[in-house]
Amino acid sequence: MSMGEFPVGLEMDVSYPEFRVSLTLLSETRLRFEIREGPFARTETVEIQAVSLGNGLFAVSWQERDGATVTNVQDYDRGVVYSCVTPPGGRLLRMVGTIAVTRPADRAFDDRPRRNKALVLDAMTSLFQRRDASAVDRLYAPDYIQHNPAIPQGRDALRALVAGLSGDVHYEPGLVVAEGDFVAIHGRIRGWAEVPQVVVDLFRIEDGRLAEHWDVLQDEAPATAALGGVAMFDPAEGARHRADPEVAGGWNRSEETT
Length: 258
Hints:
Blueprint: E1 11-15, E2 20-25, E3 30-35, E4 42-54, E5 57-63, E6 69-75, E7 80-86, E8 93-103, H1 112-128, H2 135-139, E9 140-146, H3 154-163, E10 170-179, E11 182-190, E12 197-206, E13 209-219, H4 248-254
Parallel strand pairs: 9-13
Antiparallel strand pairs: 1-2, 1-8, 2-3, 3-4, 4-5, 5-6, 6-7, 7-8, 10-11, 11-12, 12-13
Helix pairs in contact: 1-4
């Protein structure tokens, strides 16, 4: 994540155990805070240094007029701020506060959708193209939840399923849509049933792994004149992902053939 993705314009309330502060990210070098109540109550605009730590994390530090120094680790994936404050008296305060966004940033800064798309593409091609059962532990959460009634719960069951797949099984990814911690992927799988099937898989991502899965499958039918020749699935529908560096690895692997 580059500093070009620092969420300039974002306004948020951060609730600590003892008080609440409103933060406005005015620029990549300036921040305004307002504490409305309690012994720390005041409003001030400060010069900041913001450093991207990747994956929705920023370290933001500043010094206030009274000499107090503040270092925040702002975790936008989890909606948490970890703060270390040294007041003028020198007593170190460590606090954890929760974020409530009151105004969104002027530009998109959350790269979870791109990272989550890459994760899902990696999982679908690793398991259902290369039939790599070892990828389950790397990509799926230990308490993975499965909503397909034909597949038992948990990673052990998924690992066994992949290890036993026929060499005829091959998955083609298409359109991928992501928002927050959810990813939906439209694809086609051959060798899973007697005829090719078109499937939409929906995943919930937690801590960088696939935590929950739903799917809907249909037997693929040929495009007909009555439907205007529109196909149920077209691999080219996801071609734009090839140009996205965050998912390029998944697409390179997904284009392997059996």
